[in-house]
Amino acid sequence: MIGIISYLVFFTSVAAILSIAVLGLNLQWGNTGLFNGGVVAFFGTGAYGTLILGATPQDAHLGGFELFYPLALLGGMIAAGVLAWLVGMLTLRLRHDYLAIATFGVAVAFENLMRNAEGLAGGAQGFRGFERPLRAWLGDGFTYNLLFLGFVLILLMLTYLFLERLIRSPFGRLLRAIREDETAAQSLGKSPARVRLISFITGAVIMGLAGGLYATFYAFISPQDVVPILTFQIWAMLIVGGAGNNKGAIAGTFLIWGAWTASGWGLSRFAPLEVQLYTGSIQFVLIGAVIVGMLMWRPQGLFPEKLVVSQAGRNIKTNYQGENS
Amino acid sequence: MTKHPRNAVLACGLAAGLASIGGAAQAQDCTTKIGAVLPTSVDWGKPIAATAQFVVDQVNEAGGVAGCNIELVLRDSQVDPKVGVDAAKALVDLDGVQVLLGAVSSGVSMPILTSVTVPSGVMQMSCCSSSTAFSALAEEGKTKNLWFRTFATSAVQGAVGAMVARDKGYKSVAILYKNDDWGQDIGKIVAADLEALGITVTGSVALNDGQASYRAEVTEALKGEPEAVYLALYPKEGTAAVREWISLGGTQNMIVANALKSDEFRDNVGLQYLGNTIGTDTASPRSDSATAFVDQYKAHFDSEPNGPGLSNSYDATMIALLAMEAAGKDASGADIAAMVSKVTDPNGTPVTADTAGFAQAKEVLAGGGSVFYQGATGNVQFDANGDVSAPALTWAFSEDGVDELQYITLEEVDTFIASLN
Using a CB-CB distance cutoff of 8 angstroms, which residues of chain A are in contact with residue B70? Predict the structure, then answer.
């Protein structure tokens, strides 16, 4: 029984961390219509940034600043934000598929940089030397994982609440206005370029937070963690959950990641021995089928976006001041 | 969609129920699970997993371990660290395994080690992870002696590669390596060893996976007009790169690491271009058990054990099971890990790597003796970091696979490596 709980804690931690990244993408794509094809670049920057700032010194690569953990995590988020600012300045004038291709390129470049920059990030061997915070007191076992899960859930909750308030605010309306019709928004005196950039950076910082937590959880990161498949997985989670709906984003993450792991587990347990060797391939087919089916029969996702009529804004308007200026 | 988690929870409950029944049943027909996290969704990963399963079958034939049949629970890592770590965690928590085989990529093995097996006190034995980072981690005492690998660190192959270049009288060598932890490691080691022997390294070029063409990389490596080329590549990129290398007029004097010891590579490049190719590999000892492995493998799988990591996978699984036998029933991962030295003891009774060998080992261990396992990769001995050194051999491609050219004993390998430093 303790084994099952222990595994569920572990599973929930990973799913909650991924949820945060999906929420970041939801702000960019679901709310603003920015097609970010390079999620891993920002996720990875947060991960590497956190470890470089927080790790113990290593001979092989940079790092070892041993910063206080929350500062290291914050540093990772800022690094992801700075990268997003640079990328955004260069590419945000691009639309849809062009933006997707450009950001995808950034992600591939990021992976290759990490794979080759041995002095910076340990190269293909990955980045070692990070000690999980408070490990000395809490040990490595179940208690630690449970408390870490609590920490991740709190951050997930905060991110969720922040985004919920953001999209209900006038700024959120502006995001949707730009998503739906940029020219119309511009004609009302808004600056779409600036707003898109803010949304892009905010989303990237949230992805950076997810990356930082992910690297903390494994106390290790390597280029294998930031391959393009992760971008695909995060997109699948958002599409299945429902783009534009934060609850959907979280639900989609738990469902897709749950299906991903449960199918592997189920196949290893129930498939006959001869089929065992092909479980990997079967799993890809199953997951692919789920996503295709979803796109065919419920393209708006499990939790479609709730379209808000502007009247709802009136209630919120009073406490909007100072929130997003 | 919504059914998946519900099913999983249901299945979890079911599994827990079964586990408790299993515990109560006891007696001869009990089953002990061991876990394996291997990249079965990758073509070269399947035979590695099949080899592990083959060992388990042999051991069960010999009466199982500590009176129980062994069941190998195989999970696919998809070469994705988070998938591999999740699979490992599920094996440890849900299936209660005390021994975990895997993974192949160091980038997957490492997070499994740091976040699953070490915290849970489970022994982890990898067939194929080569990164030097594991040795460093072990030196820091962070593997808690739970980590082993049967893949000799790249130092052996790198040194033998340099030895071949010296013996052939090559004055300049270019290096092409796979751009991952294994390739970066071996590329660096070979370069250093060649320089130490006074051989010029004209260039060292990294090849990324999955490119349609390696023309740019090959051209760069050709620039220094090397007399020979060293290849630390896998068959897929190796084939593409060597085809371009030869078509652009590169030398056919090639030295290749064991990863290219594959029929696929030989057939796709063409044997007529590989006449001057010399391969290196860690070797089997001159014992019957090594040839026995090849014979057994051929009899069972109807093909030569030519893929990368097969003999390593065989030894990893066998040593893990021998250690489990030595540790007795219901032993913890740490207990089993502590027994590894007892089954790879140079002063122990030599046992062969097959069903009969395992049966013999059971008797010796039951009598309180220790065992010297004569494996498919050599008479494996782990150092304090869980690393193995090994004898080496050189080989060449032939009509029906590969022919051995020269056998280099463990002592010769060690002396040669020492002379380079």
Answer: none
